[in-house]
């Protein structure tokens, strides 16, 4: 009897230890670097409003968006191709939380704030800061927002905000009214390839009138289309000449504007073939589409498709970086909270120096990326308001691919390491943590892979006759000079930066173009690391704070690696022998 009673007592779960879940707090209030950067760079007349607004939004994110984000993960989109009576409808169902994210995006002006000019040349910086607070908790609504910003940028940069039909799209995409707010897709990838669109694009555009501006009927197969529930899309196609032929290559590609639905609400001669079954980003509808006479309007000149869509690529790559840094910040915030509440070997995790060092190394990486992101946003704002110098314009051009390739790649490593800091819980789906890793894995793939963006860095150098490379190297020098007489503690980082700068510059100057392409990735990584080191050093010398100085020191001693590989043709041959050994 006594044993049975004892057994019953053991069976009770009431006394078992239950650990509290780590909470998401106000992400603005917990981000001193974001606050310090804004304090340093925003004119004083904007500071109060911007800080109040970001603090309010940070609170909305932690109180309202966390559960919506989870709902988006738990209820992924579905495709209903036929109705009960067999009629083809191709309806994409999305959950109510996804629709709510659409409404919140409009209300909060997540796109509008980039175009209203409330903070003049600092509007983009404000918009990026706000989207950074949003992205990691957005149920991946950050993806349609990225493409929507890209679509607005095309229309604005190509001066079509007052020209129908683009004017209506621009007005709706920059609206703060959820009932009006439109989003955009970006259909570039076809079956033959997504990096090399010049050889990959088979879609044809049949003119429906004599007027070159359109309309056209598009025929083709779009292999990837994310946020397929969007109202419009920009896409590439080849115009069919009078003799029925099309021009191959880049110069045969033109840019087209598509409204996905007709006035009657039916799809614009678009068939949704299937939804992609993806490793992550499952919240996001991504489909294969057949364009079967889709009515479209040309944007820009015939044969200038790639150049025209590069306006969109600029913005989506910036948003990719927002998502990458936001994900890193999110998981580290959770990991910090966890370290303050989880005990192992009789001590809180935060009292194990080894655990803290592991997380601190990640924190240093995130700070470098955040600084790079904010600085890019600041430069963009200056450029859009006509206040950027030639030097800053060249700098912005080369920093754009560097920002995307670096933050995307880094986010996977950081998120993976941070996931381990939760132990087994990091691997458990209902904590929401594994989803962060799955969703970051796509960031280096879409919007240009790491290699393609490394080659874009070289494209920028070649097109500008070296001016973009000069701009970034000179900027590193400027940043170091502006901090020269500050703290001696920064002498070490400055020495390493000087050495890094010299090595990259002499490599760029002394290498032929074939070897440069081969070395593109190492060049890109060396350039971005050096630039980030310089940003951190300048920031630290300006704030004079112990934490900022330590971050700059650690970054520079760990991250500044130099190009030293062999990029000869013999070495390239050897690569193939090693890789293909056994095939
Ligand atoms: O993946 C996609 C959407 C995913 C969902 C959205 C996520 C958003 C983030 C969300 C976060 C949560 S959409 C698909 C994205 N696809 C790509 O990114 C394509 C990647 N491939 C490239 O970027 C290639 O480098 C190409 C396509 C640009 C290469 O094409 P070409 O034909 O070899 O290009 P060319 O001949 O070098 O360049 C043609 C013209 C040139 O100008 P002109 O004619 O004046 O000499 C180039 O200078 O385009 C210009 N150009 C650029 N201009 C090319 N790239 C750029 C650039 N980056 N900036 C300015
Ligand atoms: P490939 O171009 O075949 O590349 C394969 C590999 O070869 C890559 O690692 C690449 O880096 C490397 N490589 C290629 N060329 C070179 C070179 N010259 N030098 C060195 N290395 C090279 N696309 C859209 O248009 N719209 C969308 O909405 C969209 N959504 C997507 C959603 C998801 C979830 C995913 C995964 C992809 C999406 N994409 C979309 C497609 C995406 O943009 C492409 O997958 C990407 O651009 C790569 O193209 P690819 O798949 O054809 O790879």
TrEMBL record:
<dbReference type="InterPro" id="IPR009075">
    <property type="entry name" value="AcylCo_DH/oxidase_C"/>
</dbReference>
<keyword id="KW-0560">Oxidoreductase</keyword>
<feature type="domain" description="Adaptive response protein AidB N-terminal">
    <location>
        <begin position="24"/>
        <end position="157"/>
    </location>
</feature>
<dbReference type="Pfam" id="PF02770">
    <property type="entry name" value="Acyl-CoA_dh_M"/>
</dbReference>
<feature type="domain" description="Acyl-CoA dehydrogenase/oxidase C-terminal">
    <location>
        <begin position="303"/>
        <end position="460"/>
    </location>
</feature>
<dbReference type="GO" id="GO:0003995">
    <property type="term" value="F:acyl-CoA dehydrogenase activity"/>
</dbReference>
<dbReference type="Pfam" id="PF22217">
    <property type="entry name" value="ACDH-11_C"/>
</dbReference>
<dbReference type="Pfam" id="PF00441">
    <property type="entry name" value="Acyl-CoA_dh_1"/>
</dbReference>
<dbReference type="Pfam" id="PF18158">
    <property type="entry name" value="AidB_N"/>
</dbReference>
<dbReference type="InterPro" id="IPR036250">
    <property type="entry name" value="AcylCo_DH-like_C"/>
</dbReference>
<dbReference type="InterPro" id="IPR009100">
    <property type="entry name" value="AcylCoA_DH/oxidase_NM_dom_sf"/>
</dbReference>
<feature type="domain" description="Acyl-CoA oxidase/dehydrogenase middle">
    <location>
        <begin position="186"/>
        <end position="292"/>
    </location>
</feature>
<feature type="domain" description="Acyl-CoA dehydrogenase 11-like C-terminal">
    <location>
        <begin position="474"/>
        <end position="579"/>
    </location>
</feature>
<keyword id="KW-0274">FAD</keyword>
<protein>
    <recommendedName>
        <fullName>Acyl-CoA dehydrogenase/oxidase C-terminal domain-containing protein</fullName>
    </recommendedName>
</protein>
<keyword id="KW-0285">Flavoprotein</keyword>
<comment type="similarity">
    <text>Belongs to the acyl-CoA dehydrogenase family.</text>
</comment>
<dbReference type="InterPro" id="IPR053998">
    <property type="entry name" value="ACDH-11_C"/>
</dbReference>
<dbReference type="InterPro" id="IPR006091">
    <property type="entry name" value="Acyl-CoA_Oxase/DH_mid-dom"/>
</dbReference>
<dbReference type="InterPro" id="IPR041504">
    <property type="entry name" value="AidB_N"/>
</dbReference>
<dbReference type="InterPro" id="IPR052904">
    <property type="entry name" value="Acyl-CoA_dehydrogenase-like"/>
</dbReference>
């Amino acid at each position: 009897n006594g044993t049975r009673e004892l057994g019953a007592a053991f069976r009770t779960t009431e006394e078992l230890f239950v650990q509290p879940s780590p909470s998401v707090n106000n992400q603005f209030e917990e981000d001193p670097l974001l606050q310090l950067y804004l304090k340093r760079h925003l004119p004083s007349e904007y500071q109060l409003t911007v800080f109040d607004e970001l603090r309010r939004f940070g609170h909305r994110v932690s109180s309202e968006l966390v559960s919506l984000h989870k709902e988006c993960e738990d209820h992924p989109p579905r495709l209903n191709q036929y109705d009960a009576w067999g009629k083809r409808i191709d309806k994409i169902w999305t959950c109510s939380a996804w629709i709510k994210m659409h409404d919140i995006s409009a209300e909060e002006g997540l796109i509008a704030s980039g175009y209203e000019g409330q903070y003049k040349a600092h509007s983009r910086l404000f918009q990026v800061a706000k989207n950074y607070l949003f992205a990691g908790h957005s149920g991946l609504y950050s993806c349609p927002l990225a493409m929507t910003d890209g679509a607005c940028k095309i229309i604005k940069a190509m001066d079509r905000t007052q020209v129908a039909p683009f004017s209506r799209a621009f007005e709706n995409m920059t609206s703060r009214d959820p009932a009006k707010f439109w989003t955009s897709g970006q259909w570039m990838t076809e079956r033959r390839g997504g990096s090399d669109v010049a050889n990959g694009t088979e879609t044809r555009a049949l003119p429906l009138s004599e007027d070159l501006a359109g309309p056209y009927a598009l025929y083709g197969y779009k292999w990837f289309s994310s946020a397929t529930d969007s109202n419009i899309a920009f896409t590439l196609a080849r115009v069919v000449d009078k003799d029925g032929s099309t021009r191959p290559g880049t110069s045969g590609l033109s840019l087209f504007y598509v409204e996905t639905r007709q006035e009657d609400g039916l799809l614009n001669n678009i068939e949704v073939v299937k939804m992609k079954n993806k490793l992550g980003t499952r919240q996001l509808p991504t489909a294969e589409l057949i364009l079967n006479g889709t009515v479209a309007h040309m944007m820009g000149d015939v044969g200038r498709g790639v150049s025209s869509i590069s306006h969109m690529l600029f913005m989506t790559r910036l948003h990719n970086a927002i998502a990458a840094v936001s994900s890193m910040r999110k998981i580290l915030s959770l990991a910090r909270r966890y370290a303050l509440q989880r005990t192992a070997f009789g001590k809180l995790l935060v009292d194990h120096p080894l655990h803290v060092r592991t997380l601190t190394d990640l924190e240093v990486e995130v700070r470098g990326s955040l600084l790079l992101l904010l600085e890019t946003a600041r430069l963009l704002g200056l450029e859009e308001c006509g206040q950027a110098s030639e030097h800053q314009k060249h700098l912005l051009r080369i920093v754009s691919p560097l920002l995307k390739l670096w933050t995307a790649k880094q986010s996977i490593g950081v998120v993976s390491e941070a996931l381990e800091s939760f132990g087994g819980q990091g691997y458990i789906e209902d904590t929401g943590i594994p989803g962060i890793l799955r969703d970051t894995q796509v960031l280096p793939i879409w919007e240009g892979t790491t290699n393609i963006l490394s080659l874009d860095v070289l494209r920028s150098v070649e097109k500008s006759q070296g001016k973009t490379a000069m701009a970034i190297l000179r900027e590193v020098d400027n940043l170091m000079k502006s901090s020269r007489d500050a703290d001696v503690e920064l002498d070490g980082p400055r020495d390493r930066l000087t050495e890094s700068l010299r090595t990259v510059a002499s490599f760029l100057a002394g290498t032929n173009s074939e070897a440069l392409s081969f070395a593109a990735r190492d060049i890109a990584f060396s350039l971005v690391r050096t630039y980030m080191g310089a940003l951190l050093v300048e920031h630290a010398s300006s704030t004079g704070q112990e934490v900022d100085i330590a971050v700059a020191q650690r970054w520079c001693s760990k991250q500044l690696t130099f190009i030293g590989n062999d990029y000869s043709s013999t070495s390239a041959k050897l690569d193939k022998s090693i890789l293909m050994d056994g095939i």
